[in-house]
Amino acid sequence: MDFIKIQNRIKKLKGRIYSSLLRGSAGGWGKNSVIYPPFCTHNLRQFFIGDNSQIHPFGWIDCVTKYCGQEYSPRLEIGDNAYIGHRVHIIVCGNMKIGNDVIMADGVYISDNLHGYDKIDVPIEKHPLTHPGPVTIGDQVWLGENVCVLPNVTIGRHSVIGANSVVTKDIPDYCVAVGSPAKVIKRYNHEKQQWEKVI
User: Fold this and answer.
1) Mind listing the pLDDT tens digit for each residue in 94-107?
2) Known catalytic membership, residue 190
3) Which residues of the chain have pLDDT under 70?
4) Rounded distance, CA 182 to CA 148, Å?
5) 128 backbone φψ class: left, alpha, beta (φ>0; ψ -120 to 50)
6) From 89, 115, 127, 158, the catalytic residue
7) CA-based radius of gyration for the chain
């Protein structure tokens, strides 16, 4: 057996062991779902993951219940068969839903909150978080490398967000969006059964 196969077997074994240790700290954990170490979190009690999903190394997922004296009621739901790449950062202080069969490439950032900054005599890190609105990512969505998804956004079913894009507003079902801020450049025509450019 070559070294790469051995390395991959060790990674899978580490993931199974690590996930069995994390499972009791989460709100819900589906069958065969795995989080690979190293992994960063301060709270998984409001974290729910479906079946056959995987979060790859260097992920950082937090459900924030209290910050700068303010309390929050977070809930993060990840569906079945989700593939979440390396170095993904997800932070939640309200409601966030990530659907089934979602693919996230490496370096994706998703947040339903922002730092306050109103008081100029107070460091930004000491401001409470603001929660403009929930984040919902539909089934079969693909988020490319280094995509940022900001608060109060819904990404529709089977939509694709191109690498390095920043999603600041809703993206409908069956669309391709790119850029900062992300704009729809293609939409699927169900009557013609083909993807069409948006002018």
Assistant:
1) 999 999 999 999 99
2) no
3) 1
4) 10
5) beta
6) 115
7) 18
